[in-house]
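User: Hi! I'm working on a homework problem where we have to compare a predicted structure to a textbook description. Could you give me the structure for the chain below?
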Amino acid sequence: MSKKITNFRKRPVPVEALQWKDNQREMYDFITGDTEGYMQYSGEYFRIDHEKVRGGLHIKTNVSYYTPVPFEYYVIKDAYGQFTVMPPEEFKRTHIKIHNLDKEKVAEKKSDRNEDLQKMKKIIKIFNMQGVTETMLDIFSEYWEKDSKLTIQDFIEMAEAEMECWEPN
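Assistant: Happy to help. Predicted structure tokens:
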């Protein structure tokens, strides 16, 4: 019995990264999360040792105890708060810059999306109670497919407009 080989694609996971360019304060804030305190020569995830590398920065990674960070290299913090160090050529080949998201706007969009989904559930329930057939829903679906710019909100408005025309039970 042979095992079937399956192909996988690595999931894109957003990471934070900062290029080391003798930007000590910015790097210190990035590594420690402490934007107010005095800079130290060592901490939980870093130490400074000028004898081993220009700039002196060493990062604690999951690969080695402390990894020297040459100038121009990127320090990457993953979703778990672990650090890695990567040369600029490799970083640019393997990472794509994403826009910084305003966390409040993201939460607001998520809330709006949840609200839209709740409205959709309500509409489906009402359609079901009114005996709306699958054919009628297919008509909505076809209309939606014709115009790829339609949003869930547009669909909700179309469904609500349709329901306004119904006679009350």
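For your comparison, note the following. The mean pLDDT is 80. Residues 16-94 form one domain. Good luck with the assignment!
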